Amino acid sequence: MRRRVAIVGYAQSHHQHNMQKTREDMVFEVCKGALRHAGISREDLDTVITASTDFLDGRTISSVFVGMAAGAFLKDESKVEEDGTFALYYALMRVLAGTHDIALVEAHTQGSTMNAHQVSCFTLDPQFDRQIGVLNDIAAAALQARMYMNSHGVTDEHLAMVAVKNLSNAAANPWAHRKMAKVSVEEVLGSKVLCDPVRELMMSPVSDGACAVIIASEEKAREITSKPVWIEGVGSCQEAYIRDRDLGRLESLKTAARTAYKMAGIKEPAADLDVVELSEKFAHEELMAYESLGLCREGEGKRLIEKGTTGKEGKIPVNPSGGALGADPVCATGLVRVIEAAKQIRGEAEGCQVPKVRRALAHGQFGMCAQKNMVFVLGGNGS
Question: Whole-prediction pTM value?
Fold first, then answer.
């Protein structure tokens, strides 16, 4: 990228099951918090991008109701559907184009308002899959999990180990929703079966939550903070419909990562990255992501979890924050991963800090079986 862009401020809510606040309150608080964290005012913003979906908000043109709360009054304002990382991508393009210098990106979902799993049915083929009424995001994920497990000898225990790692990490994260410090493999395997092999503790909890990130051009970033977190690489890819692709691989994530790595000069991901923050909606997706991100060879994701390589104390810490299994405010989940990665680089990851983080990867996704993927490579001043 010819013009360098950095993250200069961020804030997130305390994600939970049923937040006793309106969406507008959630959005206002995180945007105000991000501005305070950056040390700037609303008047300094050039553009505001919000991320949500009308389906999950339960109302049409949902951005109309949160624009004021996000600080977009008399500002250039736009909305991006679905995950907040896509909104960050859009904001990044605006700053890189030179039309704006400082952008605020906000994402939210009030999961207690609408059933996200029920809403997922509306992404299905309306003429066939939706009419049959068998599939939703959980059933499709179960099919994906079984295909992957059968291909590579992955067991239910491997999936449970991912859940144990992330839920235990989430227990130390003050912002997480589901915290289970002493959860065991046996407890995960004993949780409710939703659609074999997916169990309740192997799936992310739909949360109420919001977050905001402020990015700035290099000139502005250096004026705002002494600890800018540079966006060194970015990649995006959308996969085909679930019946038209190999569900046993996350090819779109692989493509997005390859693009981000090339931009950031990453040649050996397992060696060049200090922390990885994944949006794993289901435990099996994390193992698949290890492979798509080049952290190991295809089919070897289970080895990383067996050896503790991706644990908080491991060689490649993945989701020290707890990831999406710790909190899933749907449209905000990927942007929360960006915040958690940036916090690691700045040494602000209270309770979850990994020592000496200089470069981190953040991942966002949306759609059934991780259909759409975004990858950001972030670095500090020394990277």
Answer: 0.97
